[in-house]
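Worked Example 4.2. Read the sequence first, then its structure tokens.
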Amino acid sequence: MSVPPAKPTNSQPAPSGTGPSPAVMPTYGRVDVVFERGEGTWIISTTGDRYLDFASGVAVNALGHAHPKLVAALTEQAHKLWHSSNLYRVAAQEKLAESLCKVTFAEQVFFCNSGAEACEGAIKTARRYHYVSGRPERWRLVTFKGAFHGRTLATIASAGNAKHLEGFGHPADGFDLVPFGDLAAAEQAITSETAGIMVEPVQGEGGVNVPPPSWLKALRDLCDRSGLLLVLDEVQTGMGRTGALFAHEAAGITPDVMAVAKGLGGGFPIGAVLATKEAAKGMVPGTHGSTFGGNPLAAAVGCAVLEAVTEPGFLDQVRNMSLRFKQMLAALKDEFPHVIEDVRGSGLLVGLKLKPPAGDVGNACIAEKLLTVGAADNVLRLLPPLNVKEEELAEAVHRLGRAFRRLPAPA
């Protein structure tokens, strides 16, 4: 298994193993390791330890670390112009918007900086659509338990996770939560105040929950019958993560509004709200904005990512690697039935439903220099870069096996 060699560095970042700085607000339970460099699927700490990165910054580093095309795009733009604000036209932003519209259902795009902002923008777009259509009473959204749409006040209210809501006062109103995958419950939740249905095609943070494609199609039909907008949160599932450019394509549907982020920037912060012209008709000057959204640096990198992901054969390779990975993980499940209860997911958004605590398994993976991501329902997520090689998948499975052997023997 080839591992990139260490390179000398003149930087002096915080060393691993010294504990987090008290100057950083402790909103994360951080692993005590500091990374300084990455190459492809590998990420290297300040102590020189090499980790196989199957977290990808939580599905952000779609093309791995230091991808030459992204480095070139960012460097070229950095030598020209970093920021001018959305008070003026931004050439790279217009190029990225046109490219996104060309390969999706969308006709218009609003740029922001993150997935939470993209979801906030999508919510505002849906509400505003009904307002300018003469139906201001229609402002509520049907949402689903187990969802994760971000950490803003509106997005935590839309998902209803008690842990995320605790201590922040009364949840923002306007969301009616129903069980994920329950079409009847969604239909029953619709009232004269409903503006739309907001849903992740696959719930990532919620435990890598994959509904049947027929369910998404049924939601599309329900919205059409009821005069509602279908709002998709493809922040984690988009940009090729499931083997299609966007996950909803597998269901043969299109949304009215869609939130995108994470993989769109390949590691550079950018988010976007995609919409049909009709759905976005209420978003006129003064209704929404973002100081940094779609600035020249972010848009240049976004263009490079989109070009790479839509190259002929790229998504075919994602699907091929997904199939091989699931075959390898099925064999691992057979070897460790006391650890793995189920292998679930779509494309390279993979979840292991575990029997031991997922946190313990994640720590064992860290000890084996393998990065993973936790999720609800005692699930461990595996999110390799989309350009991962088969031998790297095999190495990850090998390290998973070693991590499992670190766990206490079953009683």
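Now turn to a second chain, presented in exactly the same format:
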Amino acid sequence: MMMQTTLWFGLSKPQGCRVSAAEWQQFLDSEVTPRFRAGLSVYDASGQWLEEKGRLAREPSKALMLIHVPETEVNDAIKTLRTRYKQRFGQESVMRRCA
């Protein structure tokens, strides 16, 4: 049985600038691809969400779709991706949806 996980990575940094195309590609190459060599899809997205401070935020995003087996190792790899992106780019969250 396979499952689909989609992650949404916001591209706005807290300092007011954006994650550049080169920075996103470097994250994809160094963090995502080594963990998901079997394949993945990336889409440009535009989203909005409620910040911790209660303010509505709108920003461009990248949606990463993974098709994978439901294993603990895969779940751990996804958690690691979310944590590293938040740390690297100052994000409050990386949204995750599993189906």
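Notes for the reader: The mean pLDDT is 93. The domain at 3-98 is CATH 3.30.70.120 (Alpha-Beta Plaits).
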